[in-house]
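Q: My labmate handed me this sequence with no annotations at all. I'd like to see what the chain might look like in three dimensions before we decide whether it's worth expressing. Could you predict it?
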Amino acid sequence: MFLISGPCVIEDESIMMKTAEAIKKVSENLKIATIFKSSFQKDNRSSVDYYMGPGLENGLKTLERIKREFGFPLLTDIHYPEQVKPVAEVVDILQIPAYLVMQTTLVVEAAKTGAIINLKHGQFLAPENMIKPVQKIESTGNKKILLTERGYTFGYNDLVVDPRSFYHMRASGYPVVFDITHSIRRYGIPSSNPSGGARKYLNTLAFSAVASGIDGLFIEAHPCPKEALCDAASQLDVSQLETFLRPLIELHTVEVKYRNK
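A: Here is what I predict for the chain of 261 residues:
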C-alpha cells in the first residue's frame, strides 16, 4: 500500500517545506512509499473570494524544490489542456479532478505525455462507468493509471462513500486509491468552517476502504489544518499522520494475506 499526501493547495513555501519534512519522516518510519501532493490551482472553489493557489509557474517552482530536497514523486491537478505539458515536465502523476474526469480533450492530452494519470472518481458517475475515462487513456497506449474514490454527492451537500465502488474500480485492473479527507467534506459550507468536514468519520471510512482491498491512501495533511487556505475542516494534522496510518498498514497486511490464500 502506498500513500499520497500533502496540503490541499500550495501555500507559503515555509508551510510546504515543513509539511514535506514531516511526511518524509512518516514515510521513513512506516516504510510506506509516498507521493507528495498539492495543487497549484483549485479551480472549483465555491466562491471567487476563496484562495485558489499560487498559479502554474510559482506552484511548479515550489513542487520542484520539494522534489529536489526530499526526493518525493509528485502529484498535482491539471484543469486545462494547455497546462498538461509544463506540468508533466515537473510532476510524475497528473491528476484529473473529479469534476473533469469525463473531459475527453483534457484526459487524452494528459495520457499522451506517458505520465501516470490519476483519475478522480466523478461524484456524478456510477463506479463501473469509470471504465470510460480509463478507455480514453488506454486509446493513447498509456496504461499507467490510478483510480481514486472520493465519495458521491447525488447533487446534495453531503458525500457518501459506497464500498462497492472499490470492487467495481478494481475490476478495471488498475490500482485503486481512497481519498479519505475529501470524502468527509460537506459541500455548501466553507471549508474554514469546522462543520465543513466530518472528521469523526475518518477512521470508519479508512478502515472500511483498506479492508475492501484498496492499493493506496490519499490523505491531505497540513501543519495547522484550521489555518489552511483550503479544506481546513477536512485535512489531517500532519503530526497525527503516523498514528493514523499505522493500524491501517497493519490491516492492509492482513487483507493481502487473506486475499492471497
